[in-house]
Design goal:
The protein has helices spanning 18-24, 68-77, and strands at 3-4, 13-14, 34-38, 44-48, 57-61, 64-67, 83-85, 90-93, 105-106, 112-117, 120-125, 136-137. With 161 residues, it is mainly beta. Among the domains are: 28-61 and 98-140, Beta Complex (Beta-clip-like), CATH 2.170.270.10; 63-96, no CATH class. 24% of the residues are buried.
């Protein structure tokens, strides 16, 4: 097997094993293969490219660390925002991130959850997720304050974000 040593952000590369090559193409913090494609919920979405085991870490998103004040200013300047507040003072803006999990859409009946751990925004499967299934989370409180229509289409949808 022809492999190269892993770099700081990716795993080993194998020229004989396509699955290993796919895994090597993603950062180590991205535990499962996820692709970005058009979502029936909204815009683009994050979709499982392989089966994801229940209660396992799917991956995380990384971005620009900013103050909450700057995050709130940016939220007023853009129609679509990709910002998570980590604390009362710190937020992360994912708008320039290349991580596919940044496209995770909201659902009132999600199959994953967003978890903030040690300053990182991580995603965990709430149940088994099938290949091709869109990965969704419940956004919880948002800056929309109930003014944005929810489009998740889930049974029992709350109707607003």
């Amino acid at each position: 097997m022809n492999t190269t040593p892993p770099g700081p952000e990716t795993g080993p590369v194998s020229s004989h094993n396509p699955a290993a090559a796919t895994a090597a193409a993603r950062p180590l913090y991205q535990k499962y293969a996820v692709r970005v494609e058009t979502s029936r919920i909204d815009g683009l979405g994050a979709f499982a490219d392989e089966a994801i085991v229940a209660r396992r870490k799917i991956g995380e998103i990384r971005g620009e660390s900013i103050s909450v004040n700057e995050a709130r200013i940016r939220a007023t300047r853009h129609e679509r925002i990709m910002i998570v507040e980590l604390s009362a003072r710190k937020a992360i803006d994912f708008s320039r991130s290349s991580d596919p999990m940044r496209y995770t859409n909201h659902s009132c009946v999600p199959n994953a959850r967003l978890c903030i751990r040690q300053g990182r925004v991580e995603f965990y499967a709430l149940r088994a997720i099938s290949p091709g299934e869109e990965i969704t989370v419940d956004y919880g409180e948002t800056h929309h304050e109930g003014r944005l229509s929810c489009r998740c289409g889930a049974p029992g949808c709350k109707g607003r974000l």
